[in-house]
């Protein structure tokens, strides 16, 4: 049996941009992606701590070291610049493997989105 478990989490990052006129996705600083064990094209769930919105999208690479967290396309309507969001990805794995699996959880600086 396979179950879905938390694989990676960027906890409490700040939205730096919302670009309605871009074709969907979330742009994430490549440093943050590496730290959280996330890759371009990966499906992620976004939780907005400011308004309670929850939605899924996929990742595109942002400029390394920029602190960029940009919601693109329709997702841009679910955030405001300055909102604090949690970005999570999940993985399917065997039930027994899931019992000992440890997700990667990253706590960047909330004001700069830089790794601390």
From TrEMBL:
Modified residues (Pyruvic acid (Ser)): 25
Pathway: Cofactor biosynthesis; (R)-pantothenate biosynthesis; beta-alanine from L-aspartate: step 1/1
Residues holding substrate: 57, 73-75
Cofactor binding summary note: Binds 1 pyruvoyl group covalently per subunit.
Principal location listed in the UniProt entry: cytoplasm
UniProt superkingdom: Bacteria
Keywords: Autocatalytic cleavage, Cytoplasm, Decarboxylase, Lyase, Pantothenate biosynthesis, Pyruvate, Schiff base, Zymogen
Catalytic activity: L-aspartate + H(+) = beta-alanine + CO2
Pfam families: Asp_decarbox
Cellular component terms (Gene Ontology): cytosol
Gene3D superfamilies assigned: 2.40.40.20
Protein location: Cytoplasm
EC number: 4.1.1.11
Cofactor(s) this protein cannot do without: pyruvate
Active site: 25, 58
Molecular functions per Gene Ontology: aspartate 1-decarboxylase activity
Family classification: Belongs to the PanD family.
Function of the protein: Catalyzes the pyruvoyl-dependent decarboxylation of aspartate to produce beta-alanine.
Oligomeric and partner information: Heterooctamer of four alpha and four beta subunits.
Protein name: Aspartate 1-decarboxylase
């Amino acid at each position: 049996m396979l179950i879905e478990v938390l694989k990676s989490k960027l906890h409490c990052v700040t939205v730096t941009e919302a670009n309605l006129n871009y074709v969907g996705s979330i742009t994430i600083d490549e440093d943050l992606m590496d730290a959280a064990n996330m890759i371009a094209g990966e499906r992620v769930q976004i939780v907005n701590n400011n308004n309670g919105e929850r939605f899924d999208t996929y990742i595109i690479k942002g400029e390394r070291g920029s602190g960029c967290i940009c919601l693109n396309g329709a997702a841009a309507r679910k955030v405001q610049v300055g909102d604090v969001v949690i970005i999570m990805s999940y993985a399917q794995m065997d039930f027994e493997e899931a019992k000992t699996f440890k997700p990667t959880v990253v706590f960047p600086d909330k004001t700069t989105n830089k790794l601390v």
